[in-house]
Amino acid sequence: MNHYLSVAGGLSALAALMHLGCIYFGAPWYRVFGAGEQMALMAERGSYQPTLITLGIFCVLMTWSVYAFSAAGLIGQLPMLRAVLVSITCVYAVRGVGGFFFMAWPMGRSTEFWYYSSVLCLMIALVHFIGLKQQWDVL
What superkingdom heads the lineage (predicted)? Predict the structure, then answer.
């Protein structure tokens, strides 16, 4: 079992569950987690758009979690494991770095949201990278 990829999978699962919390608890959670006032207002008005967007993000994050758990050896090996994990690691890294550029143009989100979410994405990318490097020959 690879501990780094286990943690990476757990972090993606936690992020996915937090997105489900936004769907369940609505506008206050969208605001607290920095989704932007527009998403919060749409949720308050009963629009399905925030739910669909957030549900899509939930599905992506859960898929990433399952792939990390697979690479960690916690579940059976999934197809294209190496390529998918490299992609996941890159997406987290690009999102992490890219978020710092959005601090100057926050697009309806706070600079704090961009800062903290970027740091978290970079940390998750690093955990994926270390675990992936350790498991490379096995995958």
Answer: Bacteria
